[in-house]
Amino acid sequence: MSFDNLDTLYRQVIMDHYKNPRNKGEFSGDDHLTIEMNNPTCGDRIHLQLQVENGTVKDAKFDGEGCSISMSSASMMTQAIKGKPVEEALKLSEYFSNMIQGKDMETEDLDIGDIQALQGVSKFPARIKCATLAWKAMEKGVGEEKV
Asked: The NIF system FeS cluster assembly NifU N-terminal domain covers which part of the protein (predicted)?
C-alpha cells in the first residue's frame, strides 16, 4: 500500500472515531474512577471513567470536548484498554507516547488496534498534547487505583 493510501486510510480511521466515538458516555453508580483533565493550550477537555477490578480495566467511558485528534484518541484508547490488565494498559500508553513523539518502539505483543492511525500526529508537535490527553488521564486514573 502506498504512503498516500495509508495516510488516507489513517485519516478515515481518525474521522470515524471522531464522528462515531466508541465508549462515549458515563457510568451510573459509584463503582468507577473519574478523571478530569484539560489541555489549556487548545481547550480540549476529557472526562474519563474507568472500572478497574483486580488489576484489570474492566470498562472505560469518556466524554469531553475537543478537536478530532483529541476525541478520536480517547475513543481509540478506551477500546484499546478495555479488558486489559493495568500493566498492559500502561504499556500501551508508553507505546502510544513514544509513537506520537516519532520514536521507534517495538509493539512486542501489544494489541495496538486503531491507535496506529494517530502516528502522523508526530509531524505536528502542537497536536501531540491533543492526542495524549486521554492517555495521560488513564495513567493518572490507574495510578490513583494503585494507591
From this structure: 10-130
